[in-house]
């Protein structure tokens, strides 16, 4: 979608093919068989630092459908609320200092430990974090003397959801990026964005003239090392001057013949990505149980809960990096989720769970483990590669973990590469800049650079 919207805005005639009945891919909705309502496959959250995703929403005219919240709610195992709310009048990273000082879910000693780690991350800068690509974040946390309780009650709630990987196992580069971009650089980076409508509705007015849903590509047609077009499952052929493959990397591997793979390095690492599941559960109670719009849960099994209706009787729970849940029978899982909700909210104690629907996406995202960057292909063709074939998708080299922001960046990068190949690049960049780094963050980072000189 991002590539199509960007290319059309540059005057390229695009045909957007989507196998499913509606747009959105992994960030989309399905029709609930029982009620006919649109349910999201899983709650999708964005942050203020997702500058490209927000740009795409603006281009699609749905920027106003995202509800932003400056307070991130945490609930401990007893249901006590702890807010992390930045002050709007202080520049980053000072904006979160008052909230961190008063963050009652952790002792003062633990809050000071986090403070030390945040300063270290700030001083690393972007260049420093890039060098940690092959280091596990668990190792970095140990080096920076972060207590286990802090990992459980602070790093896990933030990172497991953001990266869809266990905190200790993720690449330190991506873990540190979450804090640098969302919390340390700009006062708006951390604000939580929640779609106020089903995800599917966000894409209904996509500014792309030729969108064909329920249209499945069966084959990509190559001739003399170039793409000629695609063949659909109904046998028809769509010819094209250039193709952006924006399907997942599993499909891409199937479509590209060995001959192309042997000289186009973009396909060399695709088979080595590890997929990580995400579990989402929709819960309907017979009365309002949750007033907060969202909550990060300091104890599991559910890691995040979201209120899905105006009164709080319909909830959605999420478990990221949910490998351990794939084989758990659904009634057993449901019993645990119901018990957890009852323990968290007094109003849920006598409430009846009317219905629950569990959705597990087994191949939700790739694991951002150390070394993963070597597998991620660039969007444009390398020398000797298929010159009119471009890749988009969260798995490509975006500098971001697998997120909607990463996916949009990949689409914009693919569009930039394609424009360059058509000599249409003069209009400047499509990829949006990050939020500006505010002055205290710049000053603190500079101190480190000066120390290194
Ligand atoms: C359960 C879950 C929860 C998530 N939560 C969040 C979150 O809170 N925040 C966040 O930022 N990210 C989240 N993500 C990640 C985010 O959804 C993905 O990173 C992003 O949607 C990936 O987009 P993509 O375009 O790379 O791939 P996809 O969304 O997979 O798009 C690929 C498209 O290609 C289509 N396609 C495949 N084969 C064919 C074919 N043969 N012919 C035509 N079309 C085809 C597919 O139908 C699909 O629409 C979550 C993902 C999952 C699964």
Offer a concise description of the structure.
The chain is built from 13 helices and 19 strands. The chain has helices spanning 2-9, 51-59, 97-101, 108-130, 137-143, 148-163, 172-184, 199-202, 249-255, 258-263, 330-344, 404-421, 439-452; strands spanning 15-17, 29-31, 38-40, 46-47, 66-69, 71-75, 81-85, 192-195, 210-212, 217-223, 226-232, 237-239, 243-245, 275-285, 294-297, 304-307, 314-319, 353-366, 389-391.
Description:
This protein is an alpha+beta fold and 453 residues long. The protein folds into three domains: 2-47 and 197-273 and 369-422, 3-Layer(bba) Sandwich (FAD/NAD(P)-binding domain), CATH 3.50.50; 71-190 and 436-452, no CATH class; 275-366, Alpha-Beta Complex (Polyamine Oxidase, Chain A, domain 2). Helices cover 32% and strands 21% of the residues. The chain has helices at 2-9, 51-59, 97-101, 108-130, 137-143, 148-163, 172-184, 199-202, 249-255, 258-263, 330-344, 404-421, 439-452; strands at 15-17, 29-31, 38-40, 46-47, 66-69, 71-75, 81-85, 192-195, 210-212, 217-223, 226-232, 237-239, 243-245, 275-285, 294-297, 304-307, 314-319, 353-366, 389-391. Strands 7-6-15-16-17-14-18 form a seven-stranded mixed β-sheet, sandwiched between helices. A hairpin with a 6-residue loop joins strand 15 and strand 16. The longest helix has 23 residues, at 108-130. It is globular and about 65 Å long. The mean pLDDT is 96. The protein binds flavin-adenine dinucleotide (FAD). Flavin-adenine dinucleotide (FAD) is lined by residues 17-20, 25-27, 41-42, 44-46, 216-217, 246-248, 251, 278, 280, 361, 364-365, 393-394, 402-407.
């Amino acid at each position: 979608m991002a590539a199509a919207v960007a290319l059309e805005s540059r005057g390229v005639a695009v045909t957007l093919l989507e196998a499913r009945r509606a747009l959105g891919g992994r960030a989309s909705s399905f029709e609930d068989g029982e009620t006919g309502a649109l349910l999201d496959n899983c709650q999708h959250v964005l942050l203020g630092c997702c500058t490209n995703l927000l740009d795409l929403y603006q281009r699609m005219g749905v920027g106003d459908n995202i509800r932003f919240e400056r307070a991130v709610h945490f609930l401990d195992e007893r249901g006590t609320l702890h807010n992390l709310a930045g002050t709007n009048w202080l520049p980053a990273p000072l904006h979160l200092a008052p909230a961190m000082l008063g963050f009652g879910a952790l002792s003062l000693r633990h809050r000071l430990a986090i403070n030390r780690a945040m300063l270290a991350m700030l001083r690393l800068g972007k260049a420093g974090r890039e060098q940690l690509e092959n280091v596990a974040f668990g190792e970095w946390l140990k080096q920076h003397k972060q207590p286990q309780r802090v990992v459980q009650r602070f790093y896990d709630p933030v990172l497991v959801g953001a990266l869809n990987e266990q905190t200790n196992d993720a690449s330190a580069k991506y873990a540190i990026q979450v804090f640098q971009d969302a919390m340390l650089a700009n006062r708006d980076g951390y604000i939580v964005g929640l779609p106020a409508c089903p995800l599917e509705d966000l894409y209904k007015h996509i500014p792309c003239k030729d969108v064909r849903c329920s249209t499945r590509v069966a084959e990509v047609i190559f001739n003399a090392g170039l793409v000629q077009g695609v063949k659909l499952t109904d046998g028809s052929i769509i010819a094209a001057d250039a193709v952006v493959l924006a399907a997942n990397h599993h499909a891409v591997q199937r479509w590209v013949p060995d001959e192309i793979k042997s000289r186009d390095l973009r396909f060399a690492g695709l088979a080595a990505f590890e997929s990580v599941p995400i579990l989402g559960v929709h819960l309907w109670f017979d009365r309002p149980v949750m007033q907060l719009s969202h909550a990060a849960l300091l104890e599991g099994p559910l890691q995040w809960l979201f209120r899905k209706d105006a009164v709080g009787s319909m909830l959605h729970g999420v478990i990221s990096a949910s490998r351990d849940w794939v084989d758990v029978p659904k009634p057993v899982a449901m019993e645990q989720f119901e018990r957890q909700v009852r323990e968290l909210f007094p109003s849920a104690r006598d409430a009846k769970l009317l219905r629950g629907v569990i959705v597990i996406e087994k191949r939700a995202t790739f694991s951002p483990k150390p070394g993963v960057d070597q597998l991620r292909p660039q969007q444009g063709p390398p020398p000797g590669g298929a010159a009119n074939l471009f890749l988009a998708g969260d798995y490509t080299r975006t500098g971001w973990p697998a997120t909607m922001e990463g996916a949009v960046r990949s689409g914009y990068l693919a569009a930039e590469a394609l424009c360059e190949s058509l000599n249409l690049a003069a209009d400047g960049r499509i990829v949006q800049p990050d939020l500006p780094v505010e002055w205290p963050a710049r000053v603190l980072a500079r101190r480190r650079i000066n120390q290194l000189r």
